[in-house]
Amino acid sequence: FPGDPSGNTTERITNAIFNSIVETKPDLVMDLHADSQKSIPYIIIDRPTGAKAGTKEAIEKSWELAEKFGITVMYDIDVEGYKKYNVDKSLTAALVNRNQIPAFSVELGGPKIIDERFVRIGVHGIKNILSHFQMIEVKGKKTGSSSSEIKIKTKERLELVENITSSESGIIEFLVKPGQFVKTGSALAKITNVLGKIEEIIFANRDCYIIALNDYAVSFPGDSLLGVAVISPKTQIQNEIDKTTTTPKGG
Fold first, then answer.
1. CA–CA separation, 129 vs 65, rounded Å?
2. In whole numbers, what is the pLDDT of the chain averaged over residues?
3. Coil, strand, or helix at residue 80?
4. Are strands 42-45 and 103-107 parallel, antiparallel or unpaired?
5. Which one, of 63, 76, 74, lies nearest residue 162 by Cα?
6. How many Cα neighbours within 13 Å face the side chain of 91?
7. CB 3.0-4.6 Å disulfide test: which of 24, 53, 191, 213 passes with 200?
8. Other CB atoms closer than 10 Å to residue 224's CB: what's the count?
9. DSSP secondary-structure letter at 41?
10. Is the peptide bond before 2 cis (omega within 30 degrees of 0)?
11. Is the torsion defined by CA of 115, 116, 117, 122 positive or negative?
12. CB atoms within 10 A of CB 153
């Protein structure tokens, strides 16, 4: 995103979708996604990548509205990784950074299957947002929200870090569960060979919350094992926003 009106078929379709959304001037865009079957439901808030006025406000508004959904909210991975994996070209990133439209991505369970628990959480969260905008009434009230029972309880804001990977091949045995808080040095997973010999143990290199575990039973070097979130340094996020929203002298 935002695509290219003169590009290939995919780029043209992407551009048409993007422009169609922008033309409606929405108060919020929710992009529904799937992570893994062994994950908690969560919302991702994008990083600032440009210097356009209003980006800071759009990101903050995105966070405020995401909280009303009722599940765990976190910033995406740091800007370096954000651009490395082209996350800055996602729908929500393009909306926030190019057009200053509040937007966020909702991760609800695993792909290719329908998990009724995640369906209920998603439907409830969407109703919370519609209720906030007074588009529907929920339980006799026009506004209000109810948090998911598996929402991570913390007063600090969280941010995703790049997925933890393995160095060896073998069978994965996870030693943690989604939503769990683990301390630095805790064992997260172990890789064993077919004879049961431990080839590698993966440890947490910082305090973190477990967000998602890989759906596969076997891992190869460089494969992603699990996704985690950490407390976001307030100064880091604010500096990031300030750097991208400050107009250079003479600009």
1. 7
2. 89
3. helix
4. antiparallel
5. 76
6. 20
7. 191
8. 16
9. -
10. yes
11. positive
12. 8
Structure tokens at 222: 């460089």
Amino acid symbol at 184: T
Residues in the chain: 251
In contact, 158 and 71? CB cutoff 8 Å? no
pLDDT higher than threshold 70 for residue 83: yes
Q: How confident is the model at residue 117 (pLDDT cuts 50, 70, 90)?
A: very high
Looking at residue 220, what DSSP letter applies?
-
Residue 172 neighbours by CB under 8 Å, 6+ apart: 166, 189, 190, 191, 214, 216, 217, 218, 219, 225
Confidence at 84, pLDDT banded by 50, 70, 90: confident
Counting DSSP H helices and E strands in the chain, the numbers are 6, 14
| Dihedrals phi, psi of 94, to nearest 5 degrees | -65, -40
